[in-house]
Every structure is written in structure tokens, then in C-alpha cells.
Amino acid sequence: MQALRFLLPFLKPYKRLAIGALICLVGLVIFDLSIPRLVQRIIDQGIRVHDQEVVLYTGLLMLCISLLSLAMAVANNYLSVKVGEGVARDLREAVFLQIQDLSFGNLDRMQTGGLMVRLASDTAAVQRIVNISLRIGTRAPLLMLGSLLLMVDTSPSLALRLLPLILLTLAIVTVFMLRMEPLFLMVQQQFDRLNTVLQENISGVRLIKAFVRADHERARFSEVNTVFTGYSIRILRTISTMSPLLTLCVNAGIVLVIWHGGLAAIQGELTVGQIVAFTNYLLTTLTPLAMMAMLSNAWANGLASIRRIKELLETVPEVTDMATGAATPLSALGEGPLGVSFCGVSFRYNQVDPAGNGEKGEWILCDIDLAVKPGSTVAILGATGAGKSTLINLIPRFYDVIGGSILVNGVDIRELRQQDLRALIAVVPQETILFSGTVADNIRYGKPGATLTEVETAARAAQAHDFIVRLPERYETRIEERGGNLSGGQRQRVAIARAILYQPRLLILDDSTSALDVDTEARLQQALTQLPFAHTSLLVAQRVSTVLAADSIVILDKGRVVSQGSHEELLAHCSIYQEIYASQLGDPELSASMFSEAVQP
To answer: Structural domain boundaries of the chain?
Structure first.
């Protein structure tokens, strides 16, 4: 019932269509139930007494009813499909918007394949259950109830004799439906796993081929596929067991009607027409039960899908805005580049364990105190796993701090609406994401109305213009899925151009020049200092050459700030920086040469 209550708000916009479908369905049921009575009339009042007029007029009436039934069925099908498709569309949109609203912490615990199944397969299952409920699913119980009443009206004694058989059939259907729902839930969970493995193999096909791991991935897919197939077979086995039992009940009912009805007819208690009508009503009682049983897989599948969608839509984002009206307006930040202050910031992933077993992640950042002045360029350097990316991901509130606070121009970022805060920031992540479309479309992604001239200007600053003009269609060249027709360095430069065109007040580059050669990176760093808009820059890097020209370099180690200063200051006093410098550049004269080139105007 909870699943059905959850679905009601999505049905509300289509209330009139649904009521229209049900009205057509009630009319269709009434017409269906009238046919056996008319057959009884033809036999008892027409054929038995040789009255052709009764046969003729009753036959014409049956023909008219059949035509009306056809019209009602067509109207019911049309309206049911409209309601089902509308509900499915609204559910897909709600699921998509929920995925967009969820925080990174929520998404980290969800599988991509599972989300795709909810968006596509589960919503389709709900569409089917709505469609079926407005057609066969409602028609079957109405037919069954109406037939039972007319059976009692036709012959109470015969109906009483068949009552145990009807109850037995109902019990069989109920038991099998209760068994089917958990099986379908397991099938959908395994389908999630199957989709996840498939999605990972498709996205990582180059890596799989490079490491010759096709056999391993084939075995991995085969294992998941075997489990999925096993649960599917259990469902089919259940259905195949149920069908013969229902057929046996229907046939037994017909035999009992003919037996007891025949004896009653011989004794003059029933007419032949009544026996025929009673038999038809019995079939109209048992057949809907069989139909409902056969449709139980769709219902079980649909109910399981509703529960899964409900679970997703009721997931509360870990990062939320303040109540409406309580948020600080953007005007409080003033104009110009943003200054960022980290005040005793601590953070760990999995602060709230979804399994409820009390386990939490280890601390990634510990008591970070750091000030980034407006308009400055600050680099964050450290080994892999030092917490660099985590630190900058806290600024746009991809995650919320566990301890301490982050201030932007003196305002706690938790007091700002997420949308307002992120509108001031451009982040170029480690993993470059490009969308299907042209090069120009990808660059103007954050500023859809940008002219081609603005796009080219941003591309020149990102050192991307030269390679773009060598592409077959220049800026109109189509980018393949995930940028497959561009090199790693080209993808990074397109992503940087996208961020530059956005003209943010805070530009964050998260190790996004790692695929560039030293000369190209040096030209890019020089271009970033000459952008035609005021901004603050945060550079996350592992290479010393990336941070040489920064106003300040922050050394992060094991989640703590261990030192901060200019290149020369750190080289003189910070042992960690000295080790990084020695391992990457080694020669002090080479380092000095690179430093002078990096800061040269």
C-alpha cells in the first residue's frame, strides 16, 4: 500500500483521463456480463420454443452490444496508454532531477548501472503496471465480482457447490503473487549489477584491451549473468507451476457445472439456457483469476520498481540549502575576485554510514587553516592521497565540511544557496568530461549564448586554438563519446577553455594540466595571468613546474597543511617541497631557469 500511495501524486495530473478509462471499463464489463444472459434468452425463449423473432432480435442486440464493447475497449486502451505514458514521463523526470539534486556523497554510494535501471527499466515497469491496472487489472476483478453475483442469481445451489473451488483458485493466485514480488526484487537487484558491469566494461574497454583482461572481464560478466539468469528461471518456474494448476481449476469447474447442472436440468430445476449462462459466468469468474495470476509478474515487477524509485526519490541530499529566505544574498560577497578562508576544516568520507553499522571513513583533512587572498594565484602541492582534490571539492559544496568552516569573502558558504555559490566558480576536474556535440558546444557549455569569437578567445587562452583549427571541421568538429577522438592533453585544454569562457570569480584547476607538455603548460600558466576578467586561481598539482609562478604554494601532506610560501621560500625551508623538487627537477640551475620563465611577463 505504501508503494501505491507513493504513486498517487504522479497519477493526480491524469485524474480525468484515468476516470474516463475506468468509466469505459465499467461499461465494457456491463456489456460483457450481459452476453450470457442474452444467450440464455436465445436458448430458452427462442430455440427451445422455436421463436425466430426472439432469436433474431436478441442476436441483433448482441451484435450492437459487441460493437459498443469494441468502442469502449478502444477508448479504454487509448486513455490507459495516455495515463501510463504520462506517469512514466513524470517519473523519469523526477528521477533525473533527483539524481541532479543528490550530493556527491549520495552518488558515491550508488552504482551508475543501478541509477540507469531506475531511470529506464523501473519507470517502464511502472508504466506497464498503470496501463494494466486501468485495463485488465481492473476489468478482471469487476468481471469476477459481477459474474459471482450473476451465478448466485442464476442458481444459488450450484454457486454454493462451486464456492470451495473458487476460493481455492483465489488462494492459489494469492500465494503465487506473494512469492513473485520478492523474486522480482532480487531480479532487479541482479539486473543493476549486470548493468554496472556492462557500463564499466564499455567505458573501460581501452584499459581492458591494454592489460589483456578480456578473459577476466568475460568471467566477471558471466558470473553476474549466471546469477541473474538463475533468479529469472526461478520466476519462470513459478509461473509454469501456477498455470497448470489454474487450468485444472477451470476445467474442474466446467465438469462440476455440467454434472450438477445436468442433474438439475433432468429434474426440471434448471433450463439448458441457465446451464449455458452459468457456465459462461463460471468461466468469467475463473478466467479473470487466471489472467490476474498471469499478470502477477507484471504487478510484482511494477511494485518492486515503485519501491526502488520511491527509495531513490526519498533519499535526502547530504548537502542542503538553508530555508527559503534565510540564505545570504550574493550581494553580500561584493564584486571582483573571491577570497577563500579555511577555518579549522576537517573532513572524512562516509560520515554517515548508510548500513547503520557505525563505521565511518578515516579523516582525509585535519584542522586545515588556509587563507586565499582575492585575485591571487594559490597552488596546492602534495603527494597522491594528500587530500588536495578533497580540499577544493569542499569549496563549491560538492561535500560539506565535518568540522570547521569555509568562508568566501567572509561569508560561510553554508549560508549561500548552492546554485548561487557554484555560479561564481569554475572547476576543471582531474577527469576531463566532454559531452557529445561539437568542440564549440563543449567550450560554451557554461555560457550557451557565447559567440564564436568569444569561444575562440577562450580557446586561445587555453592553448587549444591551434589544434582545433587543424581538426576537419575546426570548431564544428563532432566530439565522440567521452572525447574519444581527442588526446588527453587536447581534452584538458578544451575543458580549461570552457572554464575560461565562463569567466568565474574563482577558477579551480584540479591537476587539469597533467597531460600537457612543459612548454604548453608554461604558455597556459602565462595566459591565465592575463585573462580579461578579475578572478582568483586555485591550482592543484603534483608537478613543481605547474606551481612555480603561483603567488603562494601550499604543501599538503596526509590531510594537513605542513608549509606555505613562495617557491624560493619553500625551497629553502620545507623538506617535503625540497624532496618533490629534487625528484622532479633535480638541477637547481634548471629549476631557476624554469622559475624565471614561469614568472616572466
So the answer is: 10-313, 381-388+418-599
